[in-house]
Fold each of these.
Amino acid sequence: MSGNMNLTRAKFDDVMVPNYAPSAVIPVRGEGSRVWDQKGKEFIDFAGGIAVNCLGHCHPALVGALKKQGEKLWHLSNVMTNEPALELATKLTASTFADKVYFANSGAEANEAALKLVRRYALDNHGAEKDQIIAFEKAFHGRTFFTVTVGGQAAYSDGFGPKPQSIKHLPFNDIAALEAEISDKTCAIMLEPIQGEGGIIDADPEFLAAVRRLADKHNALVVFDEVQTGVGRTGELYAYMHTEIVPDVLTTAKALGGGFPIAAMLTTTDIAKHLKIGTHGSTYGGNPLACAVGNAVLDVVNTEETLQGVKRREQMLRDGLAAINDKYQVFSEIRGKGLLIGGVLNEKYQGRSRDFLVASVAEGLMSLIAGANVVRFTPSLVIPEADIIEGLERFERAVAKVVAG
């Protein structure tokens, strides 16, 4: 099965806004953790659509759910609810700290909802002066104007005029900085339990404990952005489950639809009541098609078998990368959790993560980067072990080429 050869990479430059610079490879078909391009070349997928394709490509349970729902109902609007949405919300609340769910279509939208909620909660309970949101340097929370401003990378938020105010960025994992900044004007602290785009940086347990303690002391809410870490990626359903603390609000997207756009914001009854009728909404949020797929995703992912399998695959990936590194000495450390893994380039290869990505594609491996110094791997949670082995062999050949120059 080959692609339409008139639809080339050059066509992208003709018809698409130039905010992306995609690779020359145009995939046309995927199955499991393998993908084929227009010319029939096969790739092993260690990228997973940036931690989205949690069950690989064309997983039978997801294809089945989509086909079945596709012949029933696609869209109703939120003037009415629907069965798949009620079922998915029931699963999410039963499996987490949360009592209430708001559905959206993307991580940015879930985070936008969370940020509006924490501001409204503070306004209703404490008054207008309690509006400060504390976030962290190198964070990534989406591309809407509010979320990109809360994200800690000025390059993404500068150049669009005046930004939303009362947002303070602190160094990640710096308890002293947080203690110095937080006050009774703080309405929320927002963070990723593992910073994804920022370089696969784990939150220290002591830091998370301080976030919770200081938030409680100052009547602020804790928001966990689990867009990338959620839905089994770390070996628990959500990454907060590895920790001693529980957030007040959690956002989830990416893997929740296994490739179909869906997101959710989870919170408690007491906090949720501040988004009363008319305060927020989404045309497509909670549509039956997306929720049917989300239900199928959770039925597969939220099982002992899948979650234990993530931990086993993590060890294989870590061992394989360590063996490659013993030979070629390119990484200073391998960090992350579950199947969200970052290889941090050492002094000799600073700024060259893209070189490893390009070399990998040439060897038939799809991988990612997380900034200029980190090679990122986010494969399917159920990637066959044979594909891990073969993918690592391809990566080793790519590393050898970069090292050889």
Note: The first strand starts at residue 27 and ends at 31.
Amino acid sequence: MADAELSPEAQAAADFAETLNSGDIAWIITSSALVLLMIPGVGFFYSGLARRKSALSLLFLCMMSVAVVGFEWFFWGYSLAFASDASAFIGTLKHFGLMDVMRSDEYAPMTTLFILFQGMFAAITPALAIGAAADRARILPAIVFIFVWSTIVYNPIACWTWNGNGWSAVMGGLDFAGGTPVHISSGTAALAYSLMLGKRTGYNKTNGLPYRPHNVTHVVLGTVFLWVGWFGFNGGSELAANERAAMTCLVTHIAACMGAITWCLLDLRLDNKYSVIGFCSGAISGLVAITPGSGFVSPWAAVIFGIVGGIVCNFATKLKFLIGVDDALDIFAVHGIGGFAGNLLTGLFADSNIASLNGSEVDPLGWVDGHYIQLAYQLADSCAGMAYSFVLTCLILFLMNLVPGLSLRASKSDEDEGLDDTQLGEFAYDYVEISRHLADYTHSEHSDENAAEKGTAVSPTKTD
């Protein structure tokens, strides 16, 4: 008996299945997991740089970004960024609640994976910005901010950059993996958040923080998570397991290496000492700079991206002293300025020979191809992203601060006590709470001896 003829719906499903490539699917699933790994990496990086009495709150906010944006992306974020009937600025609610996305031909044949992968980008972006909350921001308003900011700031920028209808995409702007939507937007938002919160207690405009990073090991651990995850962040943006994706991973790694070396040398010239924090900051700077151009540039250009990224981000850490804004973790310097520099370098070094490694025909791209107008496109996109993120972030925070219960700043007593205690009630290091209370008074030799007999840690000064 002959097989029954398939219904049109079944035939469409069978045809769709034949278009899928298992290697591509495996790579995008892996890349999504790698980008997710980056978010606790950001948390460890930030918590290690901050004071230990607020370390756990930063980890909490970074992980909360995954949950809050995960819901926002399902609810309307994906539709606002990638709906096929989007305007030049923002999408519609065509896919509200992820309606009608199965077997869609908008980003076929892997729309479902595209939603998952881009959702991780949406989650890590406010996690990068929320480091500005260090030591002085209340947690509930920060969580509300993550949801609102993702909707009003991230989604429109993602739309105009990556949606085919977006004004930057139509203009010809190049941004392979998030120079503007991720790094410029988050870095600028962190600057605005720092400005609206005000300086931390004890902040000194001349010398900055009177506290050193409390756990450099956490900074290294966070850097490792980020470096590994960036292979998925950039390499996965090709949305295929092909030669261009492999080249993207290669140039990403080269830029990170050169950024780390450059920052270390810049610090060495000042202090005649090597810095682990400098190495980690430099690696992140190189990774940020290469992000927008990672699918467009050759390995020799990646060396330049890393060196320039390390230099500009290193010197940009001084900007907060010039403008008097307490950017606690130098987020604007590394992500805002690094992303801006990476966008401009992409306009110079984008190479059609690299972009065509996936088998497609590509028009001339950057200055190396003789396409000189590209630098103007990159500059326009970068300035628009920076201005939009800063103004809208300030407006969001200003309005939130007027709402009862959503005041941004923790009280001075809460700040002195530490956000881990007052906002969470949990601590990154339990022994700190013992030594804190013992250090509230001046220790005599006798009390030190008694403490030693009991095995209790003591300190002659109050801990932070």
Note: Residues 23-402 form a domain with the Ammonium transporter fold fold (CATH 1.10.3430.10).
Amino acid sequence: MRHVSGGSPGTRRSALLVAAAAALLTLTTACGQEKGEQSPKGQNVGAEAPVEGGAGDGYGSGEGEGDGDGYGAGSGSAEGAGKAKSAGQLAVRDSKKLGKVVTDSAGFTLYRFDKDTAQPPKSTCADACEAAWPVVPAKGAKAAPGVDESLLGEVARADGSKQLTIDGWPMYRFAKDTEPGDAKGQGVGGTWYAAAPDGKKAAPGTAGDADANGDANGDADAGADGGAAKPADRAGLSTRNDPELGEIVVDGNGMTVYRFTKDSAWPMKSACTGACLKKWPVVEPVDKNDTLGILKKGFVTFDRPDGQKQQTIDCWPLYTFAGDKKPGDTNGQGVGGTWYAAAPDGKAVGATK
């Protein structure tokens, strides 16, 4: 019998260590070797991992989407009932299919029900319906950055609990949404729809959709505040040539994108939290293929401690400014000596450091 030597244990151990080191180096190249790299998921150092949903977390799992009762409950799942979970800091996700959608702090879609009413606020979802569509408690909910806080309210349910409302519409999650970004409840039973930040039905390129009372909002509301509609030829992130600042980054709506000099790229960290985010909403994740003229190195997202995901260029966190009212505005430039328009390579335009 021919004997093949596998080498000494020490030699094999050294080879394994070299291979592991090479794999780690491969994972840490997205943000530039000169300044070290973020973890593969881009999570803040010391930040808790975001909630991922799934069984046992209050979102339920659902076992069907029967629409005979308009609830989409089917056989349902009782996991959602009795485990109402605070939405925390609300956020707005820009969905290519649904338009602007309001989510909870973990990125789970919030929904509204056509059989409810907004004037006066009233929820008609209970028992089996509530198992499939867990209610969103009013307590602890905070308006999404850039959204009018006065739109948030509450409605008393039959059991005495208080449910979150947006412009009078009671808010729910869907038990079958098990991952942040899921919107499996959209259109279920012809009565359930993802909610827009103003409480209307989410709709691409519009401020809302026809509400439960048949009032057509749709295109009449689109662009009323400077235009939420995204031009067909405009990328999620692109650039424009500003007459004073030169080439700067803009989002899918043409709004100027900014950098905050108190942030850091390594470790990837945002110094803008709490009230700061109301004035400086984060730029949500953008597909790398949905960009034009933007540096691809370090074009990654990271998980903020508040549960939001934020886009970066060269690992620098990106924001927009609530004080910019229309495309082309650069009212955030130089604010506080720390906020500057972002260049295509992620640098802060005009910053002295």
Note: The helical segments are 9-27, 128-132, 218-221, 276-279.
